[in-house]
C-alpha cells in the first residue's frame, strides 16, 4: 500500500519534471521513447528530493541515471526513496544485493 502510494507520487513528480504524462502503462517504454533525456533525469532527482524532503545518496542517483525504461526508473527511485526514508545507516553494498 505505501509502496503503491510512493510509486504514484513518483509518477506524478516524474511527469511534472519531464512534462511527459506517464503512468503504469508506460512501464516498458524506453526513456528515449517517452522523450526523457539525462538533463530530465537530473531535474527528476532534484524534484524528488525537494518534494519528498529527502537527500538521495550519490550511488542511488547513479543507479537512476543508468535506467533505460520507465519501469526501471520508477523502481530505482522507489527503492532509493524507501532507503532514504527508512534507514538511518546504509548497509555496505555487499549486504544490499547489489
List its salient traits.
single chain, 4 helices, mainly alpha, 59% helix, disordered C terminus, globular, 98 residues
**Spans of 5+ residues with little confidence (pLDDT < 50)?**
94-98
Number of helices, counting only DSSP H or I runs of 4 residues or more: 4
Assess the beta-strand content as a share of residues.
under 5%
Cα-atom radius of gyration:
13 Å
Average of the residue pLDDT scores: 81
Give helix and strand order, one letter per element, not per position. Answer: HHHH
What is the rounded distance between the termini? 25 Å
Secondary structure class reads: mainly alpha
By DSSP, the count of extended strands is: 0
Biggest sheet descriptor: none
Helix content: 55-70%
Shape: globular
How would you briefly describe this protein structure?
This protein is mostly helical. 59% of the residues lie in helices and 0% in strands.
Could you explain the architecture of this structure?
17% of the residues are buried. With 98 residues, the protein is mainly α. Helix content is 59%, strand content 0%. The protein has helices at residues 2-18, 38-52, 58-66, 70-86.
Give the arrangement of secondary structure elements.
Elements: H1 2-18, H2 38-52, H3 58-66, H4 70-86
Amino acid at each position: 500500500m505505501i509502496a503503491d502510494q510512493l510509486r504514484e507520487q513518483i509518477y506524478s513528480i516524474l511527469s511534472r519534471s519531464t512534462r511527459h504524462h506517464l503512468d503504469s502503462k508506460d512501464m516498458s517504454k524506453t526513456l528515449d521513447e517517452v522523450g526523457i533525456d539525462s538533463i530530465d533525469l537530473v531535474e527528476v532527482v532534484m524534484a524528488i528530493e525537494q518534494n519528498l524532503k529527502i537527500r538521495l545518496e550519490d550511488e542511488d542517483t547513479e543507479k537512476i541515471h543508468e535506467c533505460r525504461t520507465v519501469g526501471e526508473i520508477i523502481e530505482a527511485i522507489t527503492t532509493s526513496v524507501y532507503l532514504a526514508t527508512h534507514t538511518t545507516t546504509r548497509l555496505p553494498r555487499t549486504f544490499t544485493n547489489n
